[in-house]
């Protein structure tokens, strides 16, 4: 009887998983197979239905393309820098604005406003505001201080893009850290205060360690989002002069739609997917090993 009762729920769970499996096979499995075929084929918009298998020439073309490595380096440093800045500012705001937000909950809605605007619209707004010839910010800098500064020029475009991305997505990190900070048991804080722990000791040895899992998750999410950035960068600067602000997403977009090199674009996408999967798998394995060691 025990064996039958244990097997019955298992068969029910498998039956309930059938719709999800079919959904994944249809909407993810089929496109993945098609992309793998295109990545090893000579294909254009005219030959989408009958691609010509050519081996790994597309992967070799991507691997030997200096623009691919330039876009990879831009995406990596952009994702890393924006993730660190957003999480640092979000953590600072979550901790030091927590008492104020608790008393005036309506402030949370104001702090979340940047998240409600589409990134493409944010890029368009800043493109108008920071435009070298018609933008109000360069105009008043010249009028008041006599300074002529090109925010979207070759030397400053990366930092402008970083600032725009940070300003829009810091509220996301703030929201995660604020909820994690509020979830810390008050009894622990009160006990440490009764033991005479100073605020900085309580912050460094109690609050931040308890928030560490949320901090790691937020850093990973923001790095992934920054690494695959497309919309606001494309609207603000496009690929930039000499491809200086081309992310991997922009590189794939231009290879696909502007150059018509569909096989090359798909091959770059496959390389990006494999590298991302390997990194995530490694991080997951490292986390599991550390958890087992404890």
Q: Your description of this structure?
A:
- The protein has 294 residues and is mostly helical.
- It has a single domain (67-293), classed as MetI-like (MetI-like fold, Orthogonal Bundle), CATH 1.10.3720.10.
- Helix content is 76%, strand content 1%.
- The chain has 13 helices and two strands.
- The chain has helices at 2-39, 57-63, 66-96, 98-103, 106-111, 119-129, 136-145, 157-182, 186-194, 199-227, 231-236, 248-258, 262-293; strands spanning 41-42, 52-53.
- It has a two-stranded antiparallel ribbon.
- The chain is globular and about 75 Å long.
- Mean pLDDT is 84; it is low at 1-8.
Topology:
Elements: H1 2-39, E1 41-42, E2 52-53, H2 57-63, H3 66-96, H4 98-103, H5 106-111, H6 119-129, H7 136-145, H8 157-182, H9 186-194, H10 199-227, H11 231-236, H12 248-258, H13 262-293
Antiparallel strand pairs: 1-2
Helix pairs in contact: 1-13, 2-13, 3-8, 3-10, 3-12, 8-10, 9-10, 12-13
